Amino acid sequence: MTKLAPHPDRLLPADPGERAIARQLYAEVKDAPIYSPHGHVDAAMLLADQPFPDPAALLITPDHYVTRLLHSAGVPLDQLGLRRDGGEPTVTGRAVWRQLCERWDLFLGTPVRYWFETELSEVFGLTEQPSAANADELYDQLADTLSTDAFRPRALFDRFRIAVLATTDDPADDLAAHLALRDDPTFGGRVIPTFRADRYMNPQEPTWVDKLDALSARADVDASTYGGMLDALRSRRQAFIAAGGTATDTGVIDAGSEPLEPGDAERLHRAGLDGTIDAEGAAAYRRNMLYQLAKMSSEDGLVMQLHPGVIRNHHRPTFDSYGPDTGHDLPAVSLYTVPLTPILRDFGTDPTFRLVLFTVDETAFSREIAPLAGFYPTVYAGAPWWFLDTPAGIRRYRAAITDSAGFTKTSGFIDDTRAFCSIPARHDMSRRVDAGFLAGLVATHQLSEEDAVAVARRLVADIPIQTFRLA
Amino acid sequence: MTKLAPHPDRLLPADPGERAIARQLYAEVKDAPIYSPHGHVDAAMLLADQPFPDPAALLITPDHYVTRLLHSAGVPLDQLGLRRDGGEPTVTGRAVWRQLCERWDLFLGTPVRYWFETELSEVFGLTEQPSAANADELYDQLADTLSTDAFRPRALFDRFRIAVLATTDDPADDLAAHLALRDDPTFGGRVIPTFRADRYMNPQEPTWVDKLDALSARADVDASTYGGMLDALRSRRQAFIAAGGTATDTGVIDAGSEPLEPGDAERLHRAGLDGTIDAEGAAAYRRNMLYQLAKMSSEDGLVMQLHPGVIRNHHRPTFDSYGPDTGHDLPAVSLYTVPLTPILRDFGTDPTFRLVLFTVDETAFSREIAPLAGFYPTVYAGAPWWFLDTPAGIRRYRAAITDSAGFTKTSGFIDDTRAFCSIPARHDMSRRVDAGFLAGLVATHQLSEEDAVAVARRLVADIPIQTFRLA
Amino acid sequence: MTKLAPHPDRLLPADPGERAIARQLYAEVKDAPIYSPHGHVDAAMLLADQPFPDPAALLITPDHYVTRLLHSAGVPLDQLGLRRDGGEPTVTGRAVWRQLCERWDLFLGTPVRYWFETELSEVFGLTEQPSAANADELYDQLADTLSTDAFRPRALFDRFRIAVLATTDDPADDLAAHLALRDDPTFGGRVIPTFRADRYMNPQEPTWVDKLDALSARADVDASTYGGMLDALRSRRQAFIAAGGTATDTGVIDAGSEPLEPGDAERLHRAGLDGTIDAEGAAAYRRNMLYQLAKMSSEDGLVMQLHPGVIRNHHRPTFDSYGPDTGHDLPAVSLYTVPLTPILRDFGTDPTFRLVLFTVDETAFSREIAPLAGFYPTVYAGAPWWFLDTPAGIRRYRAAITDSAGFTKTSGFIDDTRAFCSIPARHDMSRRVDAGFLAGLVATHQLSEEDAVAVARRLVADIPIQTFRLA
Questions:
Q1: pLDDT > 70 in chain A, percent
Q2: Confidence band (pLDDT; 50, 70, 90) for B1?
Q3: Average pLDDT over residues B31-53
Q4: In this complex, do A72 and C447 lie within 8 Å of one another by their Cβ atoms?
Q5: Interchain pair B393, A403: CB under 8 A
Q6: Which residues numbered 275-334 in A keep a CB inside 8 Å of some CB on C?
Q7: What pLDDT does C53 receive?
C-alpha cells in the first residue's frame, strides 16, 4: 500500500525563499470562507439533506473530469456507471470504483488526481492511495463514512465553510429549493440561483419550443412571440433576484452580439416556431439574444457571465448513447474583442452593467480578455475555466492577466463543479497557487509582503464579493 | 506612509544561484547608454527645452497605460485630464494626481506600477508610495522638482544617457525640430525621425484627402495621383534620411501585402478621392501600399518596422468624446507568414531590405515571427509590444523566440513610449529581465557565463545599432 | 580556444532541491535504449554501412535546422553546400564547415547549439568550441574520426543503443533496404518503415500522375482509378506491415477529413488525371484521402501519425533554385477538433484505430490536442514538433498537455531527424527536460518520487512501445 498524505506545502513554489513567503500568504487565506459564485451543485440536494448515494455515484459517475480520462484509457462509459440508451446502470458502484482504483496511475500529474487526493484525505479521511489491491476496502470505508450524519450535505456545507454557493438554473425553474433553503431557519447557508437562458437562444435546438412553453407557464407571460419571450425572461430575472440571485450565465459557441431590429428578431422567432429557420438565421437570432441579455443586465444589474467557445457533444455516437455532458465537449478558438463590440459599445461604461469573461482558449488571456478588462469598467477577467482550471493553467492566467488588468479586475476563483465534495479541494488549490504567484512577485521585489498579504486576502473575499455583487 | 524604495535586485530571478549570475550580467549593462530606436517622444519638446508642465500633465494624462487602468476601475477619462468634446480640461492637475494616489493599489503587480515606482524614486527622488493621505504633499514635491533646471528635457536626456532617440513622424512633417536639434551646437544628443505613412494608406479615412494635400505641399510633388503620391513619399523618405532617419514604421490592421498593377492602384486612388471606394477596395489599396513601402525600403535602405493587428478605437462613445489614443485600442489575432508572402518573395533576401516584425498577439512569437526571422536574412523579431511589454511578456518572448531565431535576429528593447521620463525605467526593466533570462540559461548550463556576458552587452548596443542601422 | 565540455547537469532545473531530484530521475533513464518511432534516416545508409562523407556533408548541408539559421544571418545556401539549380556544389566541405565555425555565436541559446555541442563532444570527442581560429583543425579531426570503423553507421547504431528506428517511406518504395537489414544476420537492429502517402493526396501536385504510375507498378494494382489507388495503397500497407512497419504518417496543410461519396472521389480523381481539377476540388480530394487513410488504419491497425499545418516552400526564389526542404517551410495556424470530426466520429473509439497528433502551433496543445487525447481512447498527444522540439518547447508541452491528458496519452519523444548522429543528443535532451518537469512536480508535492521514477521510465520505454505498437 502507498500512503495517501497530501503534503502541507503542496503546490507552493519549490524555491525555499519563495516557499517561505508563499507559506505565510497561504496561512492568511487557508481557512477563509468559500465564495462560490458559479457552479453546478443541485440546491435540492441541500434542501433534502439526504445521505449521499454510494461512493462511485458521488465521486465518479457524474464527474466528467474523471470519466473522460478513464474513457481515454479505453474504459467504456457504461462501465463507469453512465446509463446507455436511457437504461439502468449495468454495473455496481463497487465495480465503477474498482475501474478507477485499477487505473489510478493514469491520473499521475493531473489536477484530477490532485483534487481527488486532497478530497479523499481531507474530506473522507482515507490514508491509502487507491489501488487494485485495496479497492474494495476503500469502497467500504467510503460507503460507511457516507452513511454517517457528519457527511450529509448540510453538515458538509458547514464544514466546508461555504459562505455563498451559487447554482445554475433554467429561467423556467421554480427556484423552490432556493426559496425553501432561504426560509429554513435550521439552515444558515446562502444558496443562490444563477439565471442561465441558453435553452432559449437557439431556435434550431429540438427542445426550444418546449422550453418556450415551460417559460410561458412559469412566468405566466406568453413567450410564443419574441417580444413575449423577452418579457417572460425579464420577469423571471426578477424572480431570480428575489430568490437571492446576483448573476446570469450564458454558454454560446461564439461571443457574437449583433443586435437585430425587433421586427427581424420576431420574424426569426416565428421561423423557429415553424421549423423553417436556417443555420444563418439561428446564428443571427442567438447573437441578438446575447445582446438582449446584456441589455437586461444593464437594466436589472445581474452580473453577466459569458462562457463561449465550447463545441458540445463532439463524438456523435457517445452523445446518441449517453447524452450530453459526457466528456466530449471540447474547446474552440475563442474571440471576444470583435464579437463583443456591440455590447461594449452600448453598455461598456454603464455602471449597472457587468460582464465576466471566461475562456477555454488561453490565447485570449493576454490578447483579448486582459486588455478588455483593463479598459472597460464593466469587464472582468474570469478565472481559468474547465481544461485550464489547473495549477499550471492558473499560473499562466495570472501571468497573462495581471500585466494588463491587475488583480482587481478578476473574478476570484470559480470552482464550476457538480462535485460538491471537491469544492474545498479546488478552492484550496487556487489559494495555494495564488500564494505561490504572489510569493514570486515578492521574491523578485515586484510586490511588498504587506501588499501581497492584502492581495491574497482580497482574492478570496472582497474580489468575488464585489465582482459578483454579493455584498 | 509606506516607503518607496525599489529593491536593487528587483526582477532578478528568485533562485539564489540564478540571482547571483543575473546580478553580474545586469551590472555589465546597467549603466550602458540607451538606444531607443522606436518611440513617440516629441522632438519639439527637446528643441524648446522648457520645463515640463504639472506632474499630472507629464505623468498621467498623456499615458494611456495609466489612464486605461484607472478608467477600468470606473474613473471617467475627463477626471484624468482628458479633454471632452474638444473642450478645456475640467479638473486640475492636482485632482488628477489624487485620482491616481487614491487608487494606487489598483496597479499592484502590474508593469505600470513597476515603471512608476522606479521613475518616481530614481528620476524624481520620491521616498514614499503614493496614497490618498500624501497625494497633495507628493504633488507639491513633484511640481517643485519639475520647475528646476535639472529637470528640463535636455538635462534629463543627458542624465538618462540616451545615445539615440527615434521619434515617429508623418511624411508631411517638416522635421524642423530634428534639423534644429542636429544643428544646435549646445545639444549633443541624437534625435532622429521615423517615417510613418499610415495616414496615406486608407482612402476611406476621413483625413486621407487632406493628408495628400499636406504631403503635396511638403514634398513639392503633386500627390493627387497614385503615382504622384508614391513619388512624394519617396522624396520625403530622402528628407527623413537627410534628417538622420534610419527607419520607417507602419501600423495596419493586418499584414496583407498583395501588390496591385499600377493602373488598378491608380483607379482605387481616384475612387478614394471621389469618395466612391468601398471597404474591399480600400483594403486592396492598403495592402498594395504595404508592398510599395517595402519596395521603397528595398531601394533606400530604411529599416521597415511593422506593427499590425491593433483594433483602433474599440469603444465608439469614448472615441466620439475624447478622440483616438485614449486606451481602447485592442489586440487582434495577427498573422505574418501568409500575408507577408509577396513582400518576402520579392525582397526577403535583398541585402538592402530589412523588416522588423512586432506583435500584440503572442501566439505569433513561436508560430510565425521566430520561424520567419530564423530563415529570412531580412526579418527581425521585434521586442514585445504594448500589452506584452512587461517582465512576464519579455520572458515569454525570449523563451519563444530564442529557440528558432537566437538573439542576433531580435530588435533589442523598444520602449515605444510617449512618457519621456519612463524611458530609463523601461530600459532598466528590460535589462533586468534579459539578465534573468540569460542567468537561467547559464544556471542550466545551456550558455557559459562568458557568452552570457557577451550576449547581454550586445542586446543593449550592437543589436539595436545593427538592426536599426544606427552605426 | 574555449573548452567544449557539456555539463553533466545541463538542462536540469536550477533550483538545488529540484536539481537533486531531477538528477536521480535522469540517472534512471540516461542509458535506456532509444525508441525512435518517427524520423527521416535513410535505411539504405545502414544497409550499405559505408563511412560517412565529409563532416559538412554529414553535419551541416542536409540539416535545415542548421542551414536556416546560417541563412538568416546572410549566408547564401550555396555557400552551405546546397546545390543551386541542380548543379554541383560550388564550395568544399571545409569551406562550409568554416561558415559554421565563424558564426558559432549565432547559435547561442538555441537548441541547435545545444544538440551540436552534445554531439561534437559525446559522439565525436571534440574538446574545443568551434571558432574561426580552429575551424580547419576541427574539420581535420572530424574527417579523421569519420574514416574510422567505429564511426560507420552500424557501429554508431549500436553505440547509440537504438532499439527501434522507424524511417519514413513512400508507398511505392520497394523497402529493399528494410528487408535486407531484417534478414541480415550480422545486423541486430530493428529498422522499420513508415507508410507516408502524401504524394497521392493532391491531384494538383505536378508529380501526382507519375506517383500513381510508380504505385501501380510497385503494387501491381492499377492505381489510375480512385478505387484502384485505394486498393494499391492497401496492398502496400500490407507490404509495410510485412517489413515491420507499425505506423503511417501524413503531412497536410490542414486536418480536414470530410469523406466523399466514392463516385465524387472517382470524378475528382479523373479530373486530376485530366488536369482539370481546381483548388477546391483538390482540397476536397485531399480531405477525403485523409479520411480514407484513417479508415485503412482502422482496418489494418497501422498507427496514424498526423503532421498538419506546415506552409511548404514559403520563399519561391529559394525553392526555384534549391528545391524543397531548404529551411523555409513555416508553421500555420493549426486546428484539430473541428476538422477531425468525421474521422473521430467514425473511428474515435475503435480499438484498432490510433491517431497521434502533432503540431507546429503550440496554441493547439491545451486547446485541442490534450482535450482530444483526454477523451478519445484512440488519440495520443504527439511530442513537440520541429520549431517546438526544444527544451523550452518541451516544458510548455508537458505543462499544457499533462493537465488534460496525463502522461499515458502522449507519444514519447520523437526525434524526427535526418541527422543520424544527432539522435542520442536529441533523446538525451528530452530525458533531461522530462526529468526536470517531473522533479518540479515532486518538489511541489504533486507527485511522489516513486511515481516520478515510474513515469520517467515509462516515458522512454512503455509509452513509445505501446503508443506505436512496437511490442
A1: 100
A2: confident
A3: 97
A4: no
A5: yes
A6: 311, 314-318, 327-328, 330-333
A7: 87
Among residues A400, A461, A413, the alpha carbon closest in space to that of B110 is found at A400
pLDDT score recorded for residue A53 = 87
Give the pLDDT score at B53: 87
Q: Is the pLDDT of residue B462 over 90?
A: yes
Q: pLDDT tens digits for B121-161?
A: 999 999 999 999 999 999 999 999 999 999 999 999 999 99
C372 touches chain A (CB under 8 A): yes
Second CATH level (architecture) for the domain B16-50+152-197+246-259+302-467: Alpha-Beta Barrel (3.20)
| Contact state of C445 with A6 under an 8 Å Cβ cutoff | yes
Average pLDDT over residues B23-30: 98
Do the strands B310-311 and B330-331 form a parallel or antiparallel pair, or are they unpaired?
antiparallel
d(Cα B239, Cα B249) in Å, to the nearest integer? 16
Q: What is the mean pLDDT of each run of 10 residues along chain C (471 residues)?
A: 94 98 98 98 97 94 94 97 93 98 96 94 97 98 97 98 98 98 96 98 96 98 97 98 98 98 98 97 98 98 98 97 96 98 98 98 98 98 97 97 96 95 97 98 97 98 98 93
Give chain B positions within 8 Å (CB) of A15: 14-15
CB contact A466 to B (< 8 Å): no
For residue A185, give the amino acid letter: P
CATH code given to domain A16-50+152-467? 3.20.20.140
Q: What is the ipTM of this complex?
A: 0.97
Residue of B nearest to A451 (CA): B108
3-class SS of residue B311: strand
Q: What is the CATH topology of the domain spanning C52-151?
A: uronate isomerase, domain 2, chain A (1.10.2020)
> In this complex, which of C11, C110, C316 lies closest to B406 when CB atoms are compared?
C110
Closest partner CB to A18 (pick from B14, B315, B332): B14
Rounded Cα gap, residues C360 and C308, in angstroms: 8
pLDDT in tens, A339-361: 999 999 999 999 999 999 999 99
Residue-wise pLDDT tens digits, B438-457: 999 999 999 999 999 999 99
Give the separation between CA A457 and CA A407, rounded to whole angstroms: 11
Contact list in A for residue C344 (CB cut-off 8 A) is 314-315
pLDDT for A1 equals 79
Q: Answer whether A254 touches B (CB < 8 Å).
A: no
Residue of C nearest to A67 (CA): C375
User: C16-50+153-199+209-261+287-467 adopts what CATH topology?
Assistant: TIM Barrel (3.20.20)
Residue type (1 letter), A148? T
Looking at chain B, the whole-number percentage of residues with pLDDT higher than 70 is 100
Q: Which chains touch B (3 or more CB pairs under 8 A)?
A: A, C
Angstrom distance (rounded) from CA B401 to CA B389: 15
Please, what's the largest Cα pairwise distance for chain B? 69
Dmax (CA) of chain C? 69
Are B375 and C330 within 8 A, CB to CB?
Answer: yes
Cβ of C375 under 8 Å from any chain A Cβ? yes
All structural domains of chain A with their residue ranges? 16-50+152-467, 53-151
- B 10-69: CB under 8 A from C: 13, 15, 17-18
How far apart CA A289 and CA A255 sit, in angstroms, is: 11
Q: Which residues pair with C166 in a beta bridge?
A: C192
> Which chains does A contact via 3+ CB–CB distances below 8 A?
B, C
Name the A residues in 332-371 with CB < 8 Å from any B CB.
Answer: 335, 337-338, 341, 344-345, 348-349, 351, 363, 366-368, 370-371
DSSP-assigned letters across all residues of B22-49 = HHHHHHHHTTPPEEE-S----HHHHHH-
Fold topology of A53-151? uronate isomerase, domain 2, chain A (1.10.2020)
* C357-381 as b/e: b if 16+ CB within 10 A: bbbbbbbbbbbbbbbbbbbbbbbbb
